[in-house]
Structures are given as structure tokens and as C-alpha cells.
What does this fold into?
Amino acid sequence: MSSPASPQSTGSFFRRRFILAILSSGLFVDIGIWVRNFGVLLYVMDRTHGNPLAISMISLAEFAPIFVFSFIGGAFADRWRPKRTMVWCDLLSGLSIAVILLFVDKGTWQAVFFATFASSILSQFSQPSGMRLFKLHVPDDLMQSGMSLYQTLFAVFMILGPMIGTFVYQRAGILVSVAITGVAFLLSALSLTFLPAERRERRASEPGSLRRDMALGIRYVVRSKVLSALGGCFLAAGFALGLIQPLGIFLVTERLQLPKTDLQWFLAVNGAAMIIGGILSMSMARRTQPHQVLTLGMVVSAITIAVMGLSLHLWLSLLAQFVSGLMMPGIQISINTMILKNTEEPYVGRVNGILNPLFMGGMVMTMSASGLLLQLTSLVTVYVASGVLFVVGTVPMLPLFRRRTGTPVSVGPL
It folds into this structure.
């Protein structure tokens, strides 16, 4: 326990120690994920000569565990001690890579799919545990700043990640790419050992069945006006992004009449804007309310997406892409901040496990229909429809402007 003589200095020390440890872990995980993702993508393209089915299996291996394990992982993350959970998840990810290396080395190249699949499963336990640690170690008034810092690191790798992953694979091949991924996860686990020591917290429910814990989590979200509003926002945003996710290449080739390789400039502009947006979010975190930033970000995203669909000019399309990327960190930071500020620590994992599949489910549903909608209508129609869905996503947030957020609900026994 900290000395009562200097609680403020001790608290500052532990907050600084937490931020450094969690950012170091995030740095290594980002390196591992991007090297793995591009290594696997390029390797599968080489082995299958660009077979669309094989390439689509990469996305299936990455996103399918979110539906199957997100809620279950969140429930277990609430039961287990978060620091220990994160360390073990990274250790198991690193060790699973060693097994995959053996299979690939023996010629069973399909094992690379398992590298993505296993890591995605473990992240469904690790990610909500990380959110719990933020709740435990970061005060509410610093929550938005901490999330901004973490989101900025993610944005940096939106630009650097593809270059690093491509460079490693082209220079050293798949075995080195997978090996670097394994080492990166092990270094992340080592970084997490420097997190502040855990203390046992009182659970929101007595030890019981997993089904009971999951039922309590659903009840908790339903009874919270803020979390229910976020659920509606998540679903609408998932529908909106899913509509346009596969169609970016057609903006370049059909609307702007440019070669498909010019798509890279849109991605670079988006990544650069996300870095700037993350820095701006950090500087404004103490002066803005997260629900205000989220609503503004959704409205601006609606406008920029519609402009991208309507534009026939490269400069206007790039400007809309930049503004859209500028708002994205604010949206993501606001969502995480609202979850943490309005959720009691024992429920953080389950709340994440409920809300994230809403977003992913909505996105996958409209992704599967976007190609058909494009054939039946037009690119402009699909992009404008996406913008309208973003506006719809702001509707559940409007009541929050008439109340003060930040007080978690308390759920009694079922």
C-alpha cells in the first residue's frame, strides 16, 4: 500500500508507470500484428496466385473470432485478474507462433491462417482486460488523454505498419515475418510485467456460472442509458462503414478515372489525418465531453463520406478523406472513454463483449450486401446511404446532451 504521507506523488508514479508499460506493450503488439498481417497476405497471394477465396479466408480468420469469442472473452476477462490475463494471452500468442513456424517450415503453408486465427481469439480476452486496467489505474479526468495517446500510437502504425510488414516479407520471407511476430508478442508480455501490482477487487456478482455472468452483463447494458445509446450508435456506424468498406477502389477507378494503384494516396492521407487527429484529441481532451466529440465526429463523417461519393475532383476527394480521417480518432477515443466512465470496473469486459459485436455484425452484414447494392444502384447512392446511416447513429446520442454522464449504473442480483 502507498504511504499516506505522499499519496499524490505515489499516484502520479503509478499512473506514469502504467502508461509507459501499456504503450510499450501496444508498440510491440502493433509491430507484430502488422508484420503478421502483411506477411500472411503476401505469402498467401504468392502461394495461391491471388486466389480470392484464399485471400478472403484471411479476413475470416481475423474477424470470425470476434463474433464467437468477444462476449465470452469479456465475461472471462471480468472474472480473471486483468494484468495476468494480458500477460498470458501475449505469451500464448508468442508460443503458438513457434508451433506455426514448425508447420510452415515443414511445408504446411496453410498453417499461416492459424497464426491470425489464434491471435484474434486471444485478443478477445486481452483487449477487455486492457480496458479494465485503464479503469483501475487512470483517473476519470485523465481517461480521455490516456485513450488519445493510445489511439495516436495506433494511427502511426496505420501508415508505418504496411510499409514495415511489406519490407520484412519481401526481404526475409514468411518464416522471418512469423518469427518477428512471435518475438513481438513475447516482448509485449515482458512489458506488461512492469504494470503496477494488482489488487483483488470485489466482484459485482458472486462466483457462479458463466451464463449468469453474461446475463448480468446484458442487463447492465440495457439498464444504462449511456451504454444503450452507444449500442445503437455502434450498430448504425457498423452498417455505415460496411457499405463502403469494399468500395474504396471504385472511387479511384470509376469516379476519379485514376489507376487503382492511386488508392495508396488515399490510405496515406487517411493515416496522416488520424495521427493529427489523435494529437488534437490529446490536446483537447480536458476541455471537451466525449459524447459531444462522438456526435460531432459522426456528423462530419456523414458529410465527408457523402462528398467522397459525389466528388469528381481528386483534390476534393482527398480533402474529404483527410477530414474523415481527422475525426476518426476522436470517435474511437470518445467511445472508449464513455464506456470506461459509465461502466463499473467488474463489468468492463462484458460491456466490451456486447458492444463490439454490434459494430462488427452491422459492418459484416452490409459488407456482404454492398456489392449487390452497387450493381442495383450506383456508387453515389451507396456512399450517400452510408452518410445517412452515420446521421442515424447520432440519434441515440441526443438524449445524452440533456443529462450528465459518468455515473455507472449499479445492477443488483438477478
